[in-house]
Amino acid sequence: MKKEPRQARSRASVQAMVEACARILEERGYAGLTTNAVAEVAGVSIGSLYEYFPGKEAIVARLCGALLADVSSTLNARLELTDSREDVHRAMRHLIGALHGLVRQHRKLLRVLIFQVPFIQQLPSAQKLQLELLRVAEKGLQKSRQHYRLSVSPSTLYLMATSTAGSLLHLVLMAPPGLETEVVLDDLAARMADWLEKG
């Protein structure tokens, strides 16, 4: 991004461009995303767009940053609602359920970002997602340690975070027909809780 918007009107314009980018990706795919299309859908001039973004790649990067913020906000809110004295399996099921809901909410967009955007893995926000999942896992672990004897190594936390994220993405985007989602979520939560308790 060339510069951060400072005034309320310019912030609203940038937000409109990011939302337009998401709509176009969902409806037309990455091949249909152009700066002209974003400007048209957002209701701004192409000059205004280039004032903030050098190209469509920068708008996609901003969009991914917004998704990361959404993930972080949702998981932290869920963590705050979780009673640290609650059964570990139940607490894990609530957290995984919240993350699954978020993936489902953005499934059209995520499908395009993951399978069509060639530079997605190089974006800082994509790389930060794993770190954010780890941070939330560590925060939850610290909260639970007050009432449970949980001892998990950093490598185990990493495996838990990446396994959960990968499983949920596959469940939402590529699951075979007939697979019972709630059963899968229950099993995933049970496996992660066992991992937490056994270290």
Brief digest:
The chain has 199 residues and is mostly helical.
Helices and strands, with pairings:
Elements: H1 8-28, H2 35-42, H3 46-52, H4 56-81, H5 88-105, H6 107-115, H7 124-144, H8 154-174, H9 181-198
Helix pairs in contact: 1-2, 1-4, 1-6, 2-3, 4-5, 4-7, 5-8, 5-9, 7-8, 8-9
Which shape, going by the Cα principal axes? elongated
The counted number of beta strands is: 0
Which second-level CATH architecture of the largest domain applies?
A: Orthogonal Bundle
The residue ranges in which pLDDT falls below 50 over 5 or more consecutive positions are none
**Percent of residues in helices:** over 70%
Strand content: under 5%
Name of the top-level CATH class of the largest domain: Mainly Alpha
Rg to the nearest angstrom?
19 Å
**Integer count of domains:** 2
CATH fold-level name of the largest domain: Tetracycline Repressor, domain 2
Class derived from helix and strand content: mainly alpha
